[in-house]
């Protein structure tokens, strides 16, 4: 079970503008940490650094005690599953969209992932099941259905770490609650980092970090943070 450590991470996209000003935090084995903060605070930047889309200017990012700048980007990405806010589906079959997350996924892998994401009953009712075309030229999925396909695509990799980047913020509140329940279940035996706008969507987190202008403004449990407000 991996852990995530940000150790005094400094980063910016352009030389003249620092986005993260020496950020440190730790996600313990199997822990669930959430990061909240206003738009532009640097939350998604944390996810991008964790994926090694960029390397920090200084400081270190460790996964399982290993500095990620010393391992291949592919192996870093293999350990992490991300559920983004707006999942983009390919104009292809549901099955292809799920299997895409893992080279060489078998039918069993895809089935198990669909089950984990609680979208199997929906898929089984489709005229061609997993072979149903979705996207622009095929079946139009609702926001919630798309997110479930995205969750299945992530689960097919069976990643020990989950990053949820505002994974429900584009959904209506009823659908949001359903997807939150599923995400809660699939996070149970994994280490997770949730990026969120609203405190209400991360009530389950062990610890919440409040980010403001690239600095840690506060941290604490959900109830402790609510009390201070
Ligand atoms: P959040 O996720 O908290 O809304 P982001 O991490 O997306 O914030 O962005 C933090 C800051 O970095 C913002 O000011 C944003 O404009 C800037 N930023 C994000 N992506 C880029 C980029 N690719 N190039 C330059 N600046 C960027
Ligand atoms: P690959 O060649 O391995 O498919 P990708 O860059 O397409 O590499 O994706 C690797 C992982 O990074 C996938 O889990 C995907 O969901 C995630 N990913 C791709 N683009 C982004 C992005 N812009 N922000 C966050 N995660 C992303």
TrEMBL record:
Domain (ABC transporter): residue spans on this chain? 4-229
Species = Allopontixanthobacter sediminis
Q: Where in the cell is it found?
A: Cell membrane
Organism lineage string: Bacteria, Pseudomonadati, Pseudomonadota, Alphaproteobacteria, Sphingomonadales
Full-length numbering of the shown residues: 355 to 583 of 605
Which protein are we looking at? ATP-binding cassette domain-containing protein
């Amino acid at each position: 079970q991996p852990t995530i450590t940000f150790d005094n991470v400094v980063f910016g996209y352009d030389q003249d503008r620092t986005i993260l000003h020496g950020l440190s935090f730790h996600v313990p084995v199997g822990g669930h940490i959430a990061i909240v903060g206003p738009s532009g605070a640097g939350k998604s930047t944390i996810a991008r650094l964790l994926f090694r889309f960029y390397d920090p200017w200084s400081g270190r990012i460790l996964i399982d005690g290993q500095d990620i700048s010393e391992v291949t980007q592919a192996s870093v990405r293999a350990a992490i599953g991300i559920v983004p806010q707006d999942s983009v589906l390919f104009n292809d079959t549901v099955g292809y969209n799920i299997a895409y997350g893992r080279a060489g996924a078998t039918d069993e892998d895809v089935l198990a992932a669909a089950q984990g994401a609680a979208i199997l009953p929906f898929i089984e009712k489709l005229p061609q099941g997993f072979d149903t075309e979705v996207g622009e030229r095929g079946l139009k999925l609702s926001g919630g259905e798309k997110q479930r396909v995205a969750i299945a695509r992530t689960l097919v990799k069976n990643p020990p770490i989950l990053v949820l980047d505002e994974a429900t913020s584009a959904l209506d509140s009823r659908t949001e609650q359903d997807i939150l329940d599923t995400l809660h279940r699939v996070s149970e035996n994994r280490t997770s980092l949730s990026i969120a706008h609203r405190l209400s969507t991360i009530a389950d987190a062990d610890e919440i970090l409040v980010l403001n202008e690239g600095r840690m403004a506060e941290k604490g449990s959900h109830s402790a943070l609510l009390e201070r407000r």
